UniProtKB/TrEMBL annotation:
Annotated family: Belongs to the thioredoxin family. Plant F-type subfamily.
Gene Ontology molecular function: any one: peptide-N4-(N-acetyl-beta-glucosaminyl)asparagine amidase activity
Gene3D superfamilies, sorted: Glutaredoxin
Protein's name according to its UniProt entry: Putative peptide-N(4)-(N-acetyl-beta-glucosaminyl)asparagine amidase
Keywords recorded for this protein, A-Z: Disulfide bond, Electron transport, Hydrolase, Redox-active center, Transport
Organism: Medicago truncatula (Barrel medic)
PANTHER family hit by this protein: THIOREDOXIN-LIKE PROTEIN 1
Annotated EC: 3.5.1.52
Enzymatic class: hydrolase
Annotated ranges, domain Thioredoxin: 52-171
Lineage: Eukaryota, Viridiplantae, Streptophyta, Embryophyta, Tracheophyta
Length: 171
């Protein structure tokens, strides 16, 4: 019972005191904003010095850093009938950190497929995220011959492997 009360009292500020957060914070970055807020970070029990900024792109990924860049990539994928994966992620997202190395390995396994990594917390990409209705991470869009053929929401490794094998297997 004491543990339940301790957890409840530690979590309550996250659930009840969000009215003073700036309105420009999207739902997807609410957790990151809460962690970054010094008034809330004292309630956390994990390592406080962990950076919440975007990590550099992993090998096998091409980072997309702006709306203009995203639109050019999407146009190129569609016009040139390319195979591609658009990987929407966030640094603070545990499932994203879990699946990221697997996505990286798959991008090496299928060199005919380009993987684009889009950090959802970038200001310069927010309009695109709204237009595509990206509300959860990780989200992966699969393009085969320039057409969106499938998507994966969440860190389902078995489905990720199945989709990449089905869509991009070497003939």
């Amino acid at each position: 019972m004491a543990l339940r009360n301790a957890i409840k009292n530690s979590v309550r500020p996250f659930l009840t005191n969000t009215n003073n957060l700036p309105s420009r914070i999207s739902k997807s970055s609410l957790f990151a904003a809460t962690l970054a807020s010094s008034s809330y970070s004292s309630h956390l029990s994990f390592h406080q010095s962990r950076s919440l900024s975007s990590a550099s792109a992993s090998p096998g990924f091409i980072s997309v850093n702006s709306e203009e860049e995203f639109n050019k990539i999407l146009t190129k994928v569609q016009d040139d009938s390319l195979n591609a994966v658009l990987y929407f992620t966030a640094v603070w997202c545990g499932p994203c950190r879990f699946i990221s190395p697997i996505v990286g390995e798959l991008s090496k396994k299928y060199p005919n497929v380009t993987t684009y990594k889009i950090d959802i917390d970038q200001e310069a990409i927010q309009d695109t995220l709204s237009r595509l209705q990206i509300t959860s991470v990780p989200t992966l869009y699969f393009f085969q011959n320039g057409k969106k053929t499938d998507e994966l929401i969440g860190a389902d490794v078995a489905r990720l492997n199945h989709l990449t094998e089905k869509l991009f297997k070497k003939d």
